[in-house]
Structure formats: structure tokens, C-alpha cells
Amino acid sequence: EAGVVQSPRYKIIEKKQPVAFWCNPISGHNTLYWYRQNLGQGPELLIRYENEEAVDDSQLPKDRFSAERLKGVDSTLKIQPAELGDSAVYLCASSSPRDAYEQYFGPGTRLTVT
Amino acid sequence: AQKVTQAQTEISVVEKEDVTLDCVYETRDTTYYLFWYKQPPSGELVFLIRRNSFDEQNEISGRYSWNFQKSTSSFNFTITASQVVDSAVYFCALSGTNSGYALNFGKGTSLLVTP
User: Fold this and answer.
1) pLDDT tens digit sequence for B28-85
2) How do residues A23-77 score in pLDDT, each as one tens digit?
């Protein structure tokens, strides 16, 4: 079974530019999470989806960040415009009740904003 | 609110030494899960273990062992006879019903094992 897929793996952009990250969760996993991991820190939740509904986006900086999960499968996280402080690794994870909500992580997208 | 504290920022040991990584947590959930993840230099998060709040039995897996004590809200991780390949950042994490099982991570402990 394929794991969580994320693309791109690396992205370098200039500040004020837009950027988007894509995540394809494990098939059948209805819960999808986006985390951000700053250098030297643990991952922090940005948003959690149950199917296509964002049920927890309290930590998402809504002035510049947006996310969507159309049809409850793939998800896209967007930043517009990017700031220097957005440089981090963006991790996607998915889970399912049948796996007792154990989260499976993708390889992450490393974003560098210059 | 949930909180995970990993007080040890960095640990350096010589190969074959035993090392214990500390984790203390706070939660109001009555049902919760505790995790340990390994993050090697390549960056991926590698799942090591999950314990639920109703199971305080210690667990051993090869050179790894975990000590879960609800009385002290701790979930410590011991590596016996450490090896260079154990060098990585180790994260303790907590999830619960009130957060929809989203993970709250500690800040991580960087372990360096030298030959």
C-alpha cells in the first residue's frame, strides 16, 4: 500500500510570492492533517480535515494561508504571499479509525523563502 | 490543553552506552495516546511506538524500551547499547479525543552517538 505522498519535496521562492503544497493521503484515510515544522522544533498542527471538512483550523494563519480538500481525498495548502518566517518543512499526515487513528506522515515539503 | 515537555535538548553518548530520553506530558483527556517518533537527518518521521492511557505496561522492542507512568505523567524512552545509527532527533507526542487525535509534539531531543 502506498504511503502519504507529498509534492514538491523542496521549494525555494522569493518573499511575497505564492506557493502551494500538495498531499495525497493513504487510500481510505478520512482524516488528513497539515503540520509545520520549524527548524529545531517539533511539528505543529496547522489544520485537520475530516473528509472534506476542516474541523480544526485554529492554528492556521488565515491572512495568508489557505487549504482545501476537495472530494475528501487530496489536499492543497497554499501560502500567499510568502514571508521569510514561513521557511519550514510542511508535513502532511493521514489517519483512519480502523488504524486507531495512528498517523502516517509523508516525507514533507521543505520550503525556503528568500 | 495538552503539552509535552522534553527537557533534554541534546544528548551525546558513546556507542554501547545506554541512554534514556525523558518525556513529561499534560492533558485533561481521560483517553489519550502517547507516541515516540524518530527523525533521522534525512528528515522523515519514523513511528516507534504508541501507548494508550489505559495501558501502563512497559514495552521492550529489541534495544528499545519504554516506561509509561501515569502517576508522574511520564513516558520515557531508553535505548540500550546505543549505536551510531541511533543518532537522530527523537520526538515525544500526545494525542487525545478532544483534539481529534491531532498530535502535540515536544520540542525533541537530539541524540548523538559517537563511535
Assistant:
1) 988 899 999 999 988 889 889 999 999 888 888 899 999 999 999 999 999 999 999 9
2) 999 999 999 999 999 999 999 999 999 999 999 999 999 999 999 998 889 999 9
Rounded to the nearest angstrom, the minimum Cα separation between A44 and chain B is 7
Q: Where would I find the beta strands (DSSP E) of B6-73?
A: 10-14, 19-21, 24-26, 32-39, 46-52, 59-61, 64-69
Nearest by CB to residue A33, choosing from B33, B91, B102, is B102
Whether residues A31 and B95 touch (CB distance < 8 A) is answered with no
- Is the Cβ of A25 closer than 8 Å to some Cβ of chain B? no
Q: What is the DSSP string of A62-84?
A: TTTEEEE-GGGS-EEEEESS--G
